[in-house]
């Protein structure tokens, strides 16, 4: 299967970043270049993660072939010593090197890694920062947005230029180093990997502790519910702030809309800003299509082009933040209602899960026949806790193994890195499937620890990945930049953990194609023998700080509320506030459902009575004479129907009715203006 596994993985990996982009981005609203840049950056990073195990197995197979060729070459080169050598040392038969199922021919991987690596580096250091400024610009034309992006990135690119020129001067002045193209590439790669490793250790130290703790706490329903109340209190404040910012922005837009008429040159910019406003705001701001007179135009003060650009950016940011908080609030309410239902159903003796509110969507085939209320009760109230606890213990063991290996991977005699021991045991038997699975699971765990931190971290309102298609363009592009800067040093660090990086392990063996593209780090000995070896040991201190919640406590002291424990005064206050908010939303939803059920009952009852009256009216027209008994029956029917309507009026809770939502409106004196949408009386047919 020559290169077949490589082609299959290249195709299948594409669907993973596509799924993530569909979850966090919006294909219809966001710019195609933003979506393409984010998708390409994520795709290249995932390719490195999934293809690297194939590179490791191929390298081990090539090393086996080289080891089998060494004894033959020594014997054939010195035939005079063949007899003496065979008499002293027994002839050892070479091992049979079985070709792995995912073997990649020579020459393919170096080209593949070169294309993937340099494309990702061009994206993260050149294109994505420019696209970030372009997407967040408030300009009204493409040249205006490009100009704004260049101005904002002048300092960014200028800093890189100063660092690059300093390195060139240092290389030119150093007598031992020759200024060659290969040396410049190695120094550039070393600089990028050093920056990425600096950030990688910080994120990895947080994720190695936070992810096992997250799954362990997910098995505690009381903890989850209290933290959800805490989030509700914080999100309620953010939602109110977003609504205030939206109102302020809409007020400024209304003022500008009134001051600029249709004949003014800036009217095109105003229309562009209006298109970014919600539809109900656009309908309110429609002004008559008349040009202003000369007196009115001279008396009014018109805004400048720069102020309109600033207002345009403000409207975009306010609209995005308002939409994000609304969607997050709806999701948080569903989560809180579900957790409250779980706590209530734990004491349910019938072992059937009962929901407080019916789902708006009808249950599918899976929900009808497989995920029944009984199975749901056992999963939510019994099995889920134990599954999460077992998963948390397994992840904790992996975290301990990673921390130990990060502190001891430089030791080759004896081998102390656990992952290096596992790979060497599999290499002795040439079990390529085990080697690839072990490499993939290890890299996957490291990526989950790092990437989950990237997806969960929040830098105020500038960077925040929000699911359900609510992430803005700036955050999507910034996540692509982080992925491209973190993935190469992460994979290089993994190769050091399994002793496949010769610049760190100092072993005389064949290198992987990935490390050959990275270049020989021995050119910069203070980085290869110093920073790359001793800096990862800092991960121990970061794990201890994360376990003790030092960062959370510092943020809490700085005025950014974080959930610590319910013994904290600020945390307990926010938990109580969130509990009251959830209760209020539950009452509102219950009232709305009761109102809808009443509407549905009225509609069904009135519809049946109308059908009965229509059928009886048609039957009376067919008869030639009306008997007194028929008239008495009709009178009884009329009294019965009027009695039914009186009962309906008495059962209605007037406090839960909203006159604007219901077609039947009640006024003072207990009299209804109408009982149906039509203006004809209900009993006319009778």
Task: Give the helix/strand layout.
Blueprint (H helix, E strand, L loop, with lengths): L3 H10 L1 H10 L7 H46 L4 H7 L19 H28 L6 H11 L1 H20 L7 H38 L2 H39 L7 H9 L3 H6 L9 H6 L5 H41 L19 H5 L3 H36 L9 H12 L2 H25 L1 E2 L3 E2 L8 H25 L4 H4 L7 H6 L6 H10 L4 H9 L2 H8 L11 H54 L5 H24 L35
Antiparallel strand pairs: 1-2
Helix pairs in contact: 1-3, 2-3, 3-5, 3-17, 3-18, 5-6, 5-18, 8-15, 8-17, 8-18, 8-22, 9-13, 9-24, 10-13, 16-17, 17-18
Protein name: LMBR1 domain containing 2a
Keywords: Coiled coil, Membrane, Transmembrane, Transmembrane helix
Membrane topology: Multi-pass membrane protein
Can you give a write-up of this model?
It is found in: Membrane. This is LMBR1 domain containing 2a. This protein is an all-alpha fold and 686 residues long. Helices cover 71% and strands 1% of the residues. It is built from 25 helices and 2 strands. Strands 1-2 form a two-stranded antiparallel ribbon. The longest helix is centred in the C-terminal third of the chain and has 54 residues, at 569-622. The protein starts with a helix and ends in a 35-residue tail after the last helix. The model is unreliable at 74-92 and 619-686 (pLDDT under 50).
